[in-house]
Write a structure and sequence with these properties.
It is a single chain. The chain has 6 helices and 5 strands. By secondary structure, it is of the alpha+beta class.
Length: about 170
């Protein structure tokens, strides 16, 4: 029986932004831990939505927020900006799928505290198919002997791996 590499919500998030970053993380190459963007993310996670229970770990997922609302379980993912909402949406759907496989049904919402926005995320057959393709591709990327070549994108300026990709520029 072939071992299936675990995929995390973080893998899903970065897959939609930068496949190279997925490879770096899967190969346990740590980003700059003092990077401002990482520090802001930690601050937001610790500061906003204090009434909600914080981070819940289940297997290979870490859900930012979990609460009960009108007898229903609601899971939430906190992001500092809605700029990469597709990545955030797919990450949240991955969490939902993982919970469903464990027999847990939940509503889901993306939370953007700095923008004072909240977005409800819907589960569709199309989203399920896309998620399956992404998981397959993440595993393919992780098995590559070297990372995909760097590509300049708008996220590069905020990336904690930017020195790894662009140190010579």
């Amino acid at each position: 029986m072939e071992y299936e590499m675990p995929v995390t919500g973080t893998d899903i998030w970065y897959y939609y932004i930068c496949p190279r970053e997925v490879w770096l993380m899967k190969h346990q190459i740590a980003p700059d831990q003092e990077d401002e963007a990482l520090e802001i993310g930690r601050f937001l996670s610790e500061t906003y939505y204090a009434r909600d229970k914080k981070e819940l770990s289940i297997g290979h997922i870490v859900i930012d927020r979990i609460r009960q609302e009108n007898g229903e379980l609601v899971i939430g993912e906190v992001k500092k900006s809605s700029s990469y909402s597709k990545s955030a949406r797919m990450q949240l759907l991955y969490y939902l799928d993982t919970l469903r496989q464990a027999g847990i049904e939940a509503k889901r919402e993306l939370l953007f505290p700095k923008e004072r926005k909240k977005e409800q995320v819907e589960w569709t057959e199309e989203a399920r198919s896309e998620l399956e393709r992404a998981i397959t591709d993440i595993r393919r990327i992780a098995r590559m002997p070297v990372p995909p070549p760097p590509k300049k994108i708008s996220f590069c300026g905020k990336c904690a791996y930017r020195e790894y990709c662009w140190a010579e520029e």
